[in-house]
Write a structure and sequence with these properties.
With 227 residues, the protein is of the alpha+beta class. It is built from 3 helices and 19 strands. The longest helix is centred in the middle third of the chain and has 26 residues.
Length: 227
């Protein structure tokens, strides 16, 4: 892992904050540079960075952060200032590496979508659940082998408000018929929102859907500091 020089940090447009001798980098600038979608969640005091297939959750003062379903440890905990989180150049560099790694599977997946079997027959099965520690859901299911699958995320926020289309995601079942993905729920953060996940494919494949209700990112976790 290379070290980002001060000139690179300043090139990102971040304020040159100093923690000891290390300049810090604004997460908003990291997101803009690396193609992440940036979301600040005041209630959870966290920043969520999302790209296709990647969800990163960072919290001020906490060195452990989440990349999809695994935990990683930063060399120094992010700090909060000027309405944003600031991280060390080492962590900023690692976030860039994660973005580059994520772009390769995305490109490969798009190639698979283009070459997917348009004559597949069968049905889709689907399971969705909230991703622990993140404002995202995981979707797992099965479909005919090599069939293209479009996942549509819908949000029902009120009986008085029409259903909202949150996002759509294209993927392809593997040779055994399995598929899986991580989908950010932004901007459907309101607790108690009904999320409906709909999976469709080509005309010969039956669709499927699943439904869940949003809770806090760490619902059910006993945090001593909250007592």
């Amino acid at each position: 892992m290379r070290t980002i020089a001060l000139g690179t940090v300043l090139a990102l447009g971040a304020p040159a904050l100093i923690a000891g001798a290390a300049p810090l980098v604004a997460v908003k600038d990291v997101a803009a540079r690396d193609g992440y979608q940036y979301s600040w969640t005041p209630d959870a005091a966290s920043v969520v960075l999302t790209r296709a297939g990647i969800v990163v959750v960072l919290r001020p003062g906490v060195s452990v952060y989440q990349v999809n379903e695994r935990n990683e440890v930063a060399d120094e905990a992010p700090s909060y200032a000027h309405g944003d989180l600031f991280v060390t150049p080492s962590l900023a560099d690692h976030l860039e590496t994660l973005a580059q790694r994520g772009s390769k599977p995305v490109a490969a997946r798009m190639d698979r979508v283009a070459s997917a079997d348009p004559s597949a027959q069968g049905t889709i099965s689907l399971e969705a659940r909230q991703l622990q520690g993140a404002e995202a859901i995981t979707v797992d299911g099965s479909a005919p082998p090599n069939a293209p699958v479009t996942i549509t995320l819908l949000a029902i926020v009120s009986s008085e408000v029409p259903t909202v289309v949150v996002s759509r995601h294209d993927l392809v079942a593997d040779v055994s018929g399995r598929f899986a993905t991580v989908i950010p729920i932004a901007p459907a953060y309101e607790r108690g929102t009904i999320l409906r996940v709909v999976a469709n494919s080509v005309p010969g494949v039956g669709p499927a859907s699943a439904q869940l209700v949003t809770t806090s990112p760490n619902d059910g976790v006993d945090v001593p500091l909250e007592h």
